[in-house]
Specification:
By secondary structure, the protein is α/β, with parallel strands linked by helices. It has helices at 13-20, 38-47, 90-99, 114-118, 161-170, 189-196, 209-221, 250-255, 257-263, 280-286, and strands at 4-8, 25-34, 52-57, 77-84, 108-113, 124-126, 130-133, 145-148, 179-183, 201-206, 228-232, 241-247, 264-276, 291-298, 301-307. The strands form 3 sheets. Strands 11-10-9-12-13-15-14 form a 7-stranded mixed β-sheet, with helices on both faces.
Protein backbone atom coordinates (compact mmCIF):
# COMPACT_ATOMS: atom_id res chain seq x y z
CA UNK A 1 0.00 0.00 0.00
CA UNK A 2 1.16 3.61 -0.25
CA UNK A 3 3.63 4.62 2.39
CA UNK A 4 1.26 6.82 4.32
CA UNK A 5 -1.21 6.58 7.12
CA UNK A 6 -3.83 9.01 8.32
CA UNK A 7 -4.58 9.60 11.97
CA UNK A 8 -8.02 11.18 12.47
CA UNK A 9 -8.36 12.70 15.92
CA UNK A 10 -12.15 12.52 15.96
CA UNK A 11 -15.18 12.99 13.76
CA UNK A 12 -16.45 16.32 15.07
CA UNK A 13 -19.03 18.79 13.88
CA UNK A 14 -16.20 20.91 12.49
CA UNK A 15 -14.95 18.01 10.41
CA UNK A 16 -18.45 17.30 9.20
CA UNK A 17 -18.63 20.94 8.16
CA UNK A 18 -15.43 20.59 6.16
CA UNK A 19 -16.58 17.37 4.57
CA UNK A 20 -19.85 18.96 3.48
CA UNK A 21 -18.47 22.33 2.39
CA UNK A 22 -15.63 21.75 -0.02
CA UNK A 23 -14.77 25.47 -0.07
CA UNK A 24 -14.14 25.49 3.69
CA UNK A 25 -10.60 26.80 4.33
CA UNK A 26 -7.97 24.47 5.77
CA UNK A 27 -4.56 25.35 7.19
CA UNK A 28 -1.88 22.69 6.78
CA UNK A 29 1.26 22.70 8.91
CA UNK A 30 4.03 20.57 7.42
CA UNK A 31 7.34 19.47 8.89
CA UNK A 32 9.84 16.62 8.73
CA UNK A 33 10.43 14.77 11.98
CA UNK A 34 12.12 11.72 13.43
CA UNK A 35 9.79 8.83 14.25
CA UNK A 36 10.79 9.02 17.92
CA UNK A 37 9.06 12.40 18.17
CA UNK A 38 5.85 11.49 16.35
CA UNK A 39 3.51 10.80 19.26
CA UNK A 40 4.71 13.81 21.25
CA UNK A 41 4.34 16.24 18.34
CA UNK A 42 0.91 14.86 17.41
CA UNK A 43 -0.22 15.42 21.01
CA UNK A 44 1.16 18.97 21.08
CA UNK A 45 -0.48 19.94 17.79
CA UNK A 46 -3.77 18.40 18.88
CA UNK A 47 -3.76 20.76 21.88
CA UNK A 48 -3.88 23.77 19.53
CA UNK A 49 -6.58 22.44 17.23
CA UNK A 50 -5.15 19.92 14.76
CA UNK A 51 -7.99 17.59 13.81
CA UNK A 52 -6.17 15.16 11.54
CA UNK A 53 -2.67 14.16 10.54
CA UNK A 54 -1.27 12.87 7.28
CA UNK A 55 1.94 10.93 7.83
CA UNK A 56 4.15 9.69 5.01
CA UNK A 57 7.61 8.28 4.64
CA UNK A 58 10.27 10.81 3.74
CA UNK A 59 11.77 8.11 1.46
CA UNK A 60 8.59 6.94 -0.26
CA UNK A 61 10.24 5.06 -3.10
CA UNK A 62 12.58 2.94 -1.00
CA UNK A 63 10.61 1.81 2.05
CA UNK A 64 7.74 -0.65 2.26
CA UNK A 65 6.37 -1.62 5.64
CA UNK A 66 4.54 -4.74 6.76
CA UNK A 67 3.16 -3.98 10.23
CA UNK A 68 1.32 -6.47 12.38
CA UNK A 69 -2.45 -6.11 12.68
CA UNK A 70 -2.21 -4.18 15.95
CA UNK A 71 0.67 -1.94 14.86
CA UNK A 72 0.79 1.37 13.01
CA UNK A 73 3.36 1.77 10.22
CA UNK A 74 6.13 4.09 11.30
CA UNK A 75 9.16 5.15 9.29
CA UNK A 76 12.46 6.44 10.67
CA UNK A 77 12.04 9.73 8.82
CA UNK A 78 8.54 11.15 8.53
CA UNK A 79 6.82 13.95 6.68
CA UNK A 80 4.01 15.12 8.94
CA UNK A 81 1.07 17.28 7.91
CA UNK A 82 -1.31 18.61 10.54
CA UNK A 83 -4.73 19.87 9.39
CA UNK A 84 -6.46 22.82 11.08
CA UNK A 85 -9.90 24.27 10.41
CA UNK A 86 -9.00 27.65 11.93
CA UNK A 87 -6.06 29.99 11.24
CA UNK A 88 -2.82 28.98 12.93
CA UNK A 89 0.38 31.04 12.78
CA UNK A 90 3.84 29.70 12.08
CA UNK A 91 5.25 31.69 14.99
CA UNK A 92 2.71 30.22 17.41
CA UNK A 93 3.56 26.67 16.40
CA UNK A 94 7.31 27.35 16.37
CA UNK A 95 7.14 28.82 19.88
CA UNK A 96 4.95 25.97 21.10
CA UNK A 97 7.28 23.27 19.79
CA UNK A 98 10.31 25.07 21.21
CA UNK A 99 8.63 25.28 24.61
CA UNK A 100 8.52 21.48 24.62
CA UNK A 101 12.17 21.20 23.58
CA UNK A 102 11.71 20.70 19.84
CA UNK A 103 14.15 23.24 18.44
CA UNK A 104 15.40 22.18 15.02
CA UNK A 105 12.36 21.81 12.78
CA UNK A 106 11.57 23.63 9.55
CA UNK A 107 7.85 24.33 9.74
CA UNK A 108 5.72 25.50 6.82
CA UNK A 109 2.06 26.53 6.86
CA UNK A 110 -0.19 26.92 3.86
CA UNK A 111 -3.85 27.79 3.50
CA UNK A 112 -5.99 25.95 1.02
CA UNK A 113 -9.54 24.71 0.51
CA UNK A 114 -10.69 21.46 2.00
CA UNK A 115 -11.43 20.16 -1.49
CA UNK A 116 -7.88 20.89 -2.62
CA UNK A 117 -6.33 19.47 0.54
CA UNK A 118 -8.11 16.14 0.17
CA UNK A 119 -8.93 15.86 -3.50
CA UNK A 120 -6.27 14.11 -5.56
CA UNK A 121 -8.73 12.41 -7.90
CA UNK A 122 -8.51 12.99 -11.63
CA UNK A 123 -10.84 11.53 -14.22
CA UNK A 124 -9.68 8.00 -14.94
CA UNK A 125 -10.96 5.34 -17.29
CA UNK A 126 -10.45 1.70 -16.35
CA UNK A 127 -10.30 -0.74 -19.29
CA UNK A 128 -12.98 1.20 -21.22
CA UNK A 129 -15.54 -0.06 -18.70
CA UNK A 130 -15.45 2.24 -15.66
CA UNK A 131 -14.77 5.97 -15.25
CA UNK A 132 -13.79 7.47 -11.88
CA UNK A 133 -14.61 11.16 -11.55
CA UNK A 134 -14.05 13.82 -8.86
CA UNK A 135 -17.22 15.34 -7.40
CA UNK A 136 -17.15 18.51 -9.45
CA UNK A 137 -15.88 17.03 -12.71
CA UNK A 138 -17.36 18.26 -16.00
CA UNK A 139 -15.80 15.32 -17.84
CA UNK A 140 -18.29 13.40 -19.98
CA UNK A 141 -17.84 9.68 -19.42
CA UNK A 142 -17.91 7.42 -22.46
CA UNK A 143 -17.73 4.15 -20.50
CA UNK A 144 -20.70 1.95 -19.52
CA UNK A 145 -20.23 2.74 -15.81
CA UNK A 146 -18.99 5.77 -13.89
CA UNK A 147 -18.68 6.81 -10.25
CA UNK A 148 -17.91 10.05 -8.42
CA UNK A 149 -15.26 9.87 -5.75
CA UNK A 150 -13.43 11.98 -3.22
CA UNK A 151 -10.83 10.10 -1.24
CA UNK A 152 -10.94 12.67 1.57
CA UNK A 153 -8.26 11.57 4.03
CA UNK A 154 -8.75 7.87 3.20
CA UNK A 155 -6.86 5.56 0.88
CA UNK A 156 -8.33 4.74 -2.51
CA UNK A 157 -8.25 6.85 -5.67
CA UNK A 158 -7.75 4.17 -8.30
CA UNK A 159 -4.21 5.30 -9.06
CA UNK A 160 -2.25 3.03 -6.73
CA UNK A 161 -1.30 -0.26 -8.46
CA UNK A 162 -3.23 -2.40 -5.97
CA UNK A 163 -6.48 -0.48 -6.48
CA UNK A 164 -5.90 -0.32 -10.23
CA UNK A 165 -5.42 -4.10 -10.36
CA UNK A 166 -8.62 -4.69 -8.40
CA UNK A 167 -10.62 -2.33 -10.58
CA UNK A 168 -9.34 -4.05 -13.72
CA UNK A 169 -10.46 -7.39 -12.30
CA UNK A 170 -13.88 -5.94 -11.47
CA UNK A 171 -14.27 -4.75 -15.03
CA UNK A 172 -13.99 -8.34 -16.29
CA UNK A 173 -16.97 -9.62 -14.32
CA UNK A 174 -20.66 -9.07 -13.70
CA UNK A 175 -21.95 -8.10 -10.27
CA UNK A 176 -25.61 -7.88 -11.20
CA UNK A 177 -27.80 -8.92 -8.28
CA UNK A 178 -24.85 -9.88 -6.06
CA UNK A 179 -24.09 -8.98 -2.46
CA UNK A 180 -20.62 -7.57 -1.80
CA UNK A 181 -18.37 -6.92 1.19
CA UNK A 182 -15.61 -4.31 0.81
CA UNK A 183 -13.24 -5.23 3.65
CA UNK A 184 -10.84 -2.38 4.45
CA UNK A 185 -12.89 -0.08 2.26
CA UNK A 186 -10.81 3.12 2.48
CA UNK A 187 -12.67 5.59 0.27
CA UNK A 188 -15.20 2.89 -0.69
CA UNK A 189 -14.02 2.87 -4.30
CA UNK A 190 -14.25 -0.90 -4.89
CA UNK A 191 -17.66 -1.43 -3.33
CA UNK A 192 -19.07 1.67 -5.01
CA UNK A 193 -17.74 0.46 -8.35
CA UNK A 194 -19.48 -2.89 -7.82
CA UNK A 195 -22.77 -1.13 -7.00
CA UNK A 196 -22.45 0.91 -10.19
CA UNK A 197 -21.97 -2.38 -12.04
CA UNK A 198 -25.19 -3.84 -10.69
CA UNK A 199 -24.50 -5.28 -7.24
CA UNK A 200 -27.66 -5.17 -5.16
CA UNK A 201 -25.99 -4.47 -1.80
CA UNK A 202 -22.54 -3.77 -0.36
CA UNK A 203 -21.18 -3.81 3.19
CA UNK A 204 -18.24 -1.46 3.74
CA UNK A 205 -15.90 -2.31 6.62
CA UNK A 206 -12.87 -0.42 7.96
CA UNK A 207 -11.12 0.32 11.25
CA UNK A 208 -10.55 4.01 10.42
CA UNK A 209 -13.41 6.39 11.33
CA UNK A 210 -12.25 8.87 8.68
CA UNK A 211 -12.47 6.16 5.99
CA UNK A 212 -16.00 5.32 7.10
CA UNK A 213 -17.01 9.00 6.99
CA UNK A 214 -15.59 9.44 3.49
CA UNK A 215 -17.23 6.22 2.28
CA UNK A 216 -20.62 7.44 3.51
CA UNK A 217 -20.11 10.73 1.70
CA UNK A 218 -19.11 8.98 -1.52
CA UNK A 219 -22.13 6.70 -1.30
CA UNK A 220 -24.42 9.70 -0.87
CA UNK A 221 -22.91 11.55 -3.84
CA UNK A 222 -23.43 8.44 -5.99
CA UNK A 223 -26.99 8.02 -4.62
CA UNK A 224 -26.17 4.55 -3.34
CA UNK A 225 -26.65 4.91 0.42
CA UNK A 226 -29.79 2.76 0.45
CA UNK A 227 -27.83 -0.12 -1.06
CA UNK A 228 -25.06 -0.01 1.52
CA UNK A 229 -24.11 -0.63 5.13
CA UNK A 230 -20.98 1.05 6.56
CA UNK A 231 -19.49 -0.47 9.72
CA UNK A 232 -16.42 -0.32 11.93
CA UNK A 233 -14.61 -3.64 11.99
CA UNK A 234 -15.34 -3.99 15.72
CA UNK A 235 -19.09 -3.82 15.08
CA UNK A 236 -19.54 -6.15 12.13
CA UNK A 237 -21.83 -9.14 12.04
CA UNK A 238 -20.57 -12.04 9.94
CA UNK A 239 -23.00 -11.93 7.04
CA UNK A 240 -21.71 -13.96 4.08
CA UNK A 241 -21.60 -12.24 0.69
CA UNK A 242 -21.35 -13.36 -2.91
CA UNK A 243 -18.24 -11.25 -3.41
CA UNK A 244 -15.47 -10.10 -1.04
CA UNK A 245 -12.95 -7.36 -1.81
CA UNK A 246 -9.90 -7.00 0.42
CA UNK A 247 -7.13 -4.61 -0.57
CA UNK A 248 -4.84 -4.33 2.45
CA UNK A 249 -1.33 -5.51 3.29
CA UNK A 250 -0.40 -9.20 3.26
CA UNK A 251 0.18 -9.62 7.01
CA UNK A 252 -3.28 -8.30 7.80
CA UNK A 253 -4.89 -10.44 5.10
CA UNK A 254 -3.31 -13.52 6.68
CA UNK A 255 -4.40 -12.55 10.19
CA UNK A 256 -7.97 -11.91 9.01
CA UNK A 257 -8.15 -14.96 6.75
CA UNK A 258 -10.39 -17.00 9.07
CA UNK A 259 -12.89 -14.13 9.23
CA UNK A 260 -12.68 -13.61 5.47
CA UNK A 261 -13.44 -17.28 4.82
CA UNK A 262 -16.61 -17.01 6.93
CA UNK A 263 -17.77 -14.08 4.80
CA UNK A 264 -17.66 -15.91 1.45
CA UNK A 265 -20.81 -17.67 0.33
CA UNK A 266 -20.57 -21.05 -1.43
CA UNK A 267 -19.64 -20.35 -5.09
CA UNK A 268 -18.70 -16.83 -4.00
CA UNK A 269 -15.63 -14.91 -5.14
CA UNK A 270 -12.73 -13.37 -3.22
CA UNK A 271 -10.69 -10.54 -4.76
CA UNK A 272 -7.40 -9.86 -2.94
CA UNK A 273 -4.69 -7.24 -3.43
CA UNK A 274 -2.21 -5.22 -1.40
CA UNK A 275 0.25 -8.05 -2.02
CA UNK A 276 3.84 -7.70 -3.16
CA UNK A 277 4.80 -10.15 -5.89
CA UNK A 278 7.09 -12.15 -3.60
CA UNK A 279 4.23 -12.53 -1.08
CA UNK A 280 1.88 -14.14 -3.61
CA UNK A 281 2.74 -17.72 -2.69
CA UNK A 282 1.92 -17.32 1.00
CA UNK A 283 -1.43 -15.67 0.19
CA UNK A 284 -2.32 -18.50 -2.19
CA UNK A 285 -1.41 -20.99 0.55
CA UNK A 286 -3.51 -19.03 3.06
CA UNK A 287 -6.60 -19.57 0.89
CA UNK A 288 -5.71 -23.12 -0.12
CA UNK A 289 -9.35 -24.20 0.22
CA UNK A 290 -10.37 -21.77 -2.51
CA UNK A 291 -9.73 -22.13 -6.21
CA UNK A 292 -7.34 -19.58 -7.70
CA UNK A 293 -8.88 -18.27 -10.91
CA UNK A 294 -6.97 -15.10 -11.81
CA UNK A 295 -3.62 -13.51 -11.10
CA UNK A 296 -2.40 -10.10 -12.29
CA UNK A 297 0.75 -8.07 -11.60
CA UNK A 298 1.53 -4.36 -11.86
CA UNK A 299 4.64 -2.47 -10.72
CA UNK A 300 5.66 -5.17 -8.23
CA UNK A 301 2.17 -5.69 -6.81
CA UNK A 302 -0.20 -8.63 -7.29
CA UNK A 303 -3.97 -9.11 -7.31
CA UNK A 304 -5.67 -12.51 -7.03
CA UNK A 305 -9.19 -13.76 -7.61
CA UNK A 306 -10.39 -16.91 -5.83
CA UNK A 307 -13.68 -18.83 -6.01
CA UNK A 308 -15.27 -20.78 -3.18
CA UNK A 309 -16.16 -23.93 -5.14
Amino acid sequence: MPLRRVVPISITSKIDLALNKKEHPVWIAGLKIDALHLNSIETILTLVGAYSFDISSAVYETEILEPDLTEEPIWESIELKAFFLAPISKKKLDDLLKSFGFLNFHLEIKKTKYSQATQSIEAQEIDNILTILPYDSQYKSMTPFSIFLNQGLAFGTGKHPTTRLMLSQLCKHSFKGKTVTDFGCGSGILGIASLAMGAKFCRFIDNDPQALAVTKKNLAVNQMSEKAEVSHINNILLKPSDVIFINIIANTIIELSATIMKLIKPKGDLYVSGILEDQTGIIIDTFINLRLEERANLHGWTALKFSNV
